[in-house]
Queue: 2 jobs
Job 1
Amino acid sequence: MSKHIVVLGSGTAGTLTANRLRRMYDERECRITVVDQDDDHVYQPGLLFVPFGLAQPHGLVRSRPRQLHDGIDYRRARIDRVDLDADTVHFAVGGWLTYDVLVVATGAMLLPEETEGLTGPGWGEKVFTFYDLPGAIDLHHALEHFDGGRVVVNVADLPVKCPVAPLEFAFLADWYFQRCGIRDRVELTYVTPLDGAFTKPVAARALSGLLAHKGIELVTEFTLGEVDGTGGRLVSYDEREVAFDLAVVVPLHGGAAYVGRSPGLGDELGFVPVDPHTLQHPDRANVFAIGDAAGLPASKAGSVAHFEGEVLAHNIGRFLAGQPLDASYDGHTNCFVETGFHKALLIDFNYETEPLPGHFPAAVGLPLLKESHANHLGKLAFEWLYWHSLLPGRELPGIGSAMPEHGKNHVHV
Amino acid sequence: MPTATYDDTAVPVDDEGFFTEPDRWTEAMAGQLAREQGIEDLTERHWTVIRFMRSEYTAKGTGPTVRVLGKTSGVSVKELYQLFPKGPAKTAAKIAGIPKPRGCI
């Protein structure tokens, strides 16, 4: 009998999952429906470049349904809630869908209104975020008219999408102000809730070295309590202050709102807890989560969704066939970190192994944790791969789901 | 593995002083642990957080972050910082005798 797989969300994770499943199953064996609330698929890695005029906003947006293979139903609707007992997704305007397997891939949303004062006076004038397209465009206009002062880049609190992007923003801002000829009139500060530039010690050391080298001040263990737009101050919960003329804040993140309206589906923050290796919900065998929507100790990043996708499609197949799941997702994450001046560094890690120096994917390859022009070209090339390999759910040549151990140099801090 | 002595009992801790075996912790140890963090008196509000940390650790295998604490413990983030000025998630984890919270990446 034909099974129905419903994929909620048509961003990176939902799209590549649906496309992988479509290739696995004949249309008579399995019906696949993808649900999203709008038709705009944004290439999110491109948002970083918009404020600096290095990417054109319209070039980052494509149609959601057009990224889906033939034979996948696309349903444009706002989700009200999921009834796990009835295997049913309810829509806000009425109507519902029942499923045999549910994949939650609705990502993370920005919650700027959860931080006191963040969306108050100054929001969109001297307080910005580049984590959505309108914000990135507004920030571009603000930077064009900026002629000096204190620029603060802040992460309100974790988890956030692409935890390296705020660092990249600081690096690119340093380069941008140099190109504008006003770097000597700009004080750049990076303010993070972490106790270093990054969570993992070896990478934190390399990245804080880069910040210092570029003359960017680092303020750590600063959990954002309040933004005073009028007075130009960030205030932490422990009442420390950082003054700014222009603040770039990455707001708090949470899961999609319907997750909170679906009893038993998500955690306190609206993310869906799943087994870190199989991606299956602990209480519902026919529910899986992938990408930013999943509550996993992995980065919320496109590479994670890609590496998870291979394991998820395989495990849905095993679930539908009544076989035990393979616990094979290892937390593999791979990120290019733009550092300005046409350079980037690359980090590659998983649940167990922190980002290490060496080469990727093997002893001969791109340098890890070290700036190079080749890595910058890799970051640029990734945009084409995103639309043409990643979203269609194809493997990237020479790069599997499991993190390659070969080529990494183990070091002690 | 380093050890520390609380309530006349030697317990294994990590390099930063977090308990590595939460079962070895007793409520009688909390006062001394708190004083080491600069907290002279543990009030009932402190204890609300400490007990919540331990139950979360038992349920989930890691202590909650400040944000999750603020949403679920019944103590607001602002008050958490008043109770544990040096950082609620880490300080409360240390006093509650659970390992350092894993945090996010």
Job 2
Amino acid sequence: MSIEDPTVAFRVEACELLDQVEQALLDLTHRLDDAALIDSVFRGLHTLKGSGAMFGFDALAAFTHHIESAFDRVRKGRARATLELVATVLTARDHMRALVEGDAVPQDGGAILARLAAAVDAPAIAPTAPPRPAAADAATAGWQLSFRLPRQALAHGTNALALLDELRALGDCTLVARRDTIPPLDQLAERDCLVTWDATLRGDVPRAAIDDVFLFVLDDMELSATPLAPADPTPAATAAAPAPAPAREPDRSASGQPAPDTFGERRARVVQGELVRVPAARLDTLMDRVGELVIAQSRLSQLAGDRHDLQLRSVAEEVERLAAELRDTMMVLRMVPVSNLFGRFRRLVHDLARETGKAIALETVGESTEIDKTVGERLFDPLVHILRNACDHGLETPDERVTLGKGATGTVRLAAHQAGGAAVITVSDDGRGVNRARVRAKTEASGLVAPGEVLTDAELLALIFHPGFSTAAAVTNLSGRGVGMDVVKREIERLRGTIELVSTEGAGTTITLRIPLTLAIIDGLLVRVGTARFVIPLAAVEECLELSAEEDRRSLGRSLITLRDRLVPFLRLRELFASDAPPDAFQKIVVVATGRERVGLVVDQIVGSHQTVVKALSPFHRGIGSFSGATVLGDGGVALILDVAQLVARGQQIEAAMEQAA
Amino acid sequence: MSALSVSTGSGQSSTAVAWNRHGELEVLTFDLGSERFAIEATLVREIVEPLPETRVPCAPALVDTVVNHRGRIVPVADLRAPFAMVAAPPTAESCLVVVELALDDETLLLGLRADRVHEVVTLAEASSEDAPSVGVRWHRAFVRRLVRSGDDVIVLPDLAAILAPALGGAGA
């Protein structure tokens, strides 16, 4: 473990635990009676409480204790899991997270606990069937038990003797260790727990109490319990007795149910065995080194190419191959499945459904699709916005849906798949679709479109991404905060991706995002302006042409050029970047585009295409806006990478200014 | 601007000079124009010959170029401007002092131009004093301490205060 401060490690683990609790709670909203899920939440809370106290997070431990107690009552069937309760515990989870991260508002805790008490107590008045079979809790004379702890119990720190003591504390208990399950000495692994115990437990002990003793090993252990007949407490009678409470574990496997998604010790164990946790910063450092290696290697290849030394060339080729392989491996290391990203939206949709009073089902497809970690993080905000739009504006209320002959529950579908070098993420809903008439009216009102101007459907829909556009008549809490789809579009373009909207009125909307799998290496077009060199991402380049002397002169007054009957704004990079070297005789224009908008960039020379390892700019240069990063060239020099989205936006401003002047 | 601190990773703050318990501090001294400056030796990563610099258009004047230092893009700052000296071409002895700074919560490398690099010396707190309020032509906040060493006066600059206006990008 590379993290030295134990509280840092605790925070990381606690956040994971809380995420798992959240997922289990969200699952619980669909299956309120699922005992396995309830157990799962309880165990998560219990572990959190314990380790929180251990690491000195006392406020967290105390608060979690209350939630845990409430959930314990649910688990024991003394309170019922309701949607209200789950929602409250979800809020409590957020508070716990704040406690873990140390930015909690203390007053929140009290309010949540009050809500929790109300949620737990209310249903208790109406007696309902508890989730555990009531029969098992009926008065019994005792139990005949046979159990064997998980083989790794001792290795994982379970104190078997303490468990036996706990069992003894339940009632009059006779324990017999059976050694027939222990293999001969030469096959014995000394750390394995192999003893089977037979126990006769007398007294009115509920079955649940026995399960509680073994709570944390229950999933992996063998446990069979047969009630003792009240009149005849001999074990022989158990064979004839109908089994009202079959052993938990065999029952589950026998019925062929898939193992429920429980977490806790078992899953944690699996994860620790197969994965290594590495701080993201170390991966970034490694990526830097690989980038340096790629650059050094290209210089080596260049040198070797200039010399007629066959041995040197073969070594250079070998290094080239290794560097390429290493780069590919490095890329894979940074890839994470989108399930991490998608998982965070379940909560969002749950909250949105409660806020809007709509019934919303979130479907996710293709969660194993992998994208670069950084790309995934930067996709979060745009996707939140798109999902909010879908839930808030897209989906109808249940009543409207029923009137329209749709199911009351609206569906939002989040899907991902890989296509070539890009990940494709689609968000679709089966709501009302985009109201063309309203888009039209709105854009005409704001002057984006002249009244009566003929637009194709695609052009009309594209207006949704125009700055300042928002069709929501009423600004709600959820969307329409002045942040429009244009911001989403810009962010996606910053990731060098594209966004596309398809909508059928009455049937729903689909938004498709295409995102490159990685940001770390791009294909670029190397250009020269004065003495400086710049890289333009090749994916954004539409065409390169020469700016004729005549065109150059003619365009001096305006910054627009006619390109195949279309006016394209252009920027003279030497003016923009205040280059004082004399311009080349024949200037070139590189036309770059994002979606439908394009802008021409006037440069002195087009050097050629160049594989670019993208490096972040220092905080001194990040805010300038024209550059998205920098790269090291084969000769050791530095070239800045142009931020196409920003430059296109600048071109749009020029165009708008020219149109106003005209 | 949020709180700035320059540290060696062990969390020492810039504005206060971290004299050790004997009241001493190890520094690297270098000349720039007519002044002699000192930077904590623990901050210095490397001293390299001047590298080909790439101008960043529209960048703050204080840090308007970057260099490729072992595959990393490192911004270069010239302390001449904040200390009211005129720009001068590099000499045969010019160097780049690469220091590691923690600005906000980010660690970054920064190249400092130097006309001549001297040696690592130990300064004594006893012979140091605050910059006088009169008689100096520079911004007082840019100087942490002035230290007498023989006939010279060595300036301990406050890098955090000097760099703060240039953070966050565009301008100048």
